[in-house]
Amino acid sequence: MLPPLMVYLHLPWCVRKCPYCDFNSHTAPRELPEDAYVDALLADLRADLDLAAGRRVEAVFMGGGTPSLFSPAAIGRLLAGLRAELPLAAGAEVTMEANPGTLERGRFEGYAAAGVNRVSLGAQTFSAAQLERLGRIHGPGDIEAAVADLRRAGIDNFNLDLMYALPGQDLAGALADLRRALELGPAHLSHYQLTLEPGTAFFHRPPPLPDDGLALDMQLACQEQLAAAGYGQYEVSAYARTGRQCRHNLAYRRFEDYLGLGAGAHGKATLAAGVVRTEKPRLPREYLAQAARGAGGPRREVPAADLPFEYMLNALRLVEGFTLGHFERATGLESGAVLPALTALERQGLMTQGGDRWRPSERGFRFLNDLQAAF
User: Fold this and answer.
1) N or C: where does the chain have the smaller number of CB atoms within 10 Å of the terminal CB?
2) CB 329 within 8 A of CB 339
3) pLDDT for the residue numbered 300
4) Which helix H or strand E contains 124, and what residues bound it?
5) What is the pLDDT of residue 360?
6) What is the model's pTM?
């Protein structure tokens, strides 16, 4: 039986590149090529339709970059084109990332009319000084205004991205950020530590960050506050009210299938021959040229020897854990491919087993990279 299917759409342009960001994003030209890029995404979709294998789409995620640079009309044409090629399941989650600094009053009403029913706002912090250090183009007031606009548009299912361990931040500052975020009543909160990623401006010119001990104190104190406010942790950096977990996020972690469309997008498909990965050109101009030729990009079958690591790279991030039966169905491998490593990690106190379900221990979550490297 094939796993569920999602669609990821990458819209790669930003007003400017943030110094901590290692995503495939590019400074937007003066004239954004909206029509040409939507045409390219739809051509890309048609080239990959065979990977969908007739399945209904359970979730759509528009990430970036800054998708909210695109007009509601462009987003509407994109989603209409998607629905014309692939059926969407009833109640399918349709998420769009948005930057509070790129939104005009009333835009969310247009996005909602186009079919967007979930929004992820890149708040990052409510400190004006920290926002400036991070290279963000919005202020704290823009976050609050964006949330008010979301509610007027009838979109109550929204996420706030929030970072901690920011340059010079103390524990009180991290908790103050979280308190401001919770006051806005998001359905979902992505709470993650600022890290210095290779290739970013911060990596080459590191700002003064809190030490590991203080960063852990921030994480634990914020987790306590999130739990008290009714947000359950379901993934390493993701917290949600009951029933509001991000379906698309869960798809990645559960090793489900997704079409990856857009500049630099990656996809995964389960075929009779095995698991296939797709990858699209990173540079927008190269992606546009490839899509114009009707080419969907290269496909690579994942060797069986790599599947345990690919599976665990995702599944180990889930609080719910996984079963060996699911591992076998998702990879086509026998559980013996991972069971020796799992039992060794259990002896080290990094994994726990309850019934047929395996989960990282509390200590395992803190040393997740070590846990994943065991596979």
Assistant:
1) N
2) no
3) 95
4) strand 118-124
5) 96
6) 0.96
| Residues 15 and 27 sit within 8 Å (Cβ to Cβ) | yes
Residue that the structure tokens 């599944």 belong to: 315
User: Is 69 exposed, middle or buried, given 0-12, 13-18 or 19+ CB atoms closer than 10 A?
Assistant: buried
- Per the CB < 8 A criterion, the answer to whether 349 and 359 are in contact is no
- Residue 108 has a pLDDT of 95
Confidence band for 104, pLDDT divided at 50, 70 and 90 = confident
Strand partners, 318: 235
Tokens of 336: 């013996």
Element (H, E) at 331: helix 324-331
> Look-up: residue for tokens 């950096």?
237
Closest to 66 measured CA to CA, from 112, 12, 22:
12
Is the distance from CB of 200 to CB of 152 less than 8 angstroms?
no
Buried b (16+ CB within 10 A) or exposed e, 331-370: bebeeebbeeebeebeeeebbbeeeeebbbbeebbbeeee
> Could you report how far apart the first and last alpha carbons of the chain are, in Å?
25
Task: Fill in the DSSP letter of residue 265.
Answer: -
DSSP letter assigned to residue 318: B
Mean predicted lDDT score pLDDT of the chain: 95
Question: How confident is residue 242, by pLDDT bands cut at 50, 70 and 90?
Answer: very high
